[in-house]
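User: For a reading group we're discussing how well predicted structures match intuition. Take Cyclic pyranopterin monophosphate synthase. Before you show the prediction, I'll give you the sequence so everyone sees exactly what went in.
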Amino acid sequence: MSELPHLNERDEAHMVDIGGKADSHRVAVAEGLIRMTAEALEALQQGNLAKGDALGTARVAGIMAAKRTADLVPLCHPLSLTHIDVKLTPSAESPAVHCEVTAATRGTTGVEMEALTAVQVALLTVYDMCKAMDRGMCIEGVRLTHKRGGRSGDWNR
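Assistant: Thanks. Here is the predicted 3D structure of Cyclic pyranopterin monophosphate synthase, as structure tokens, for the group to look at:
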């Protein structure tokens, strides 16, 4: 049997059995950003996009994505989230929109995948809503920045 926990005795990918693990409070924070032209960022900030409020829509999309992560990522356990916070911060200097997501649960497995999925979907939503002004936008730097709880303890980038 492989020493990687996501492989079974036949070295096939499978969902890890977390049934014997104790519940604990678990938190994960992830971030990423989308770079765009200054004109696209200005239109986004002023609410002048043809599709409407990009930041508000992206915030809701990120929350919805976190709740559906197990449907999107193979072998990911479905979780009952106790908290999800999606922050989208425009920056004229870059120009870009930074996204930070905090996800939390009280359970037997972590919420890293939920936080990472929420960041990506929120930024994809910004792309979708701004693409008429800038098809050259670039999503980058999607990464976990902090994890708390569980058997492996805390981790900070």
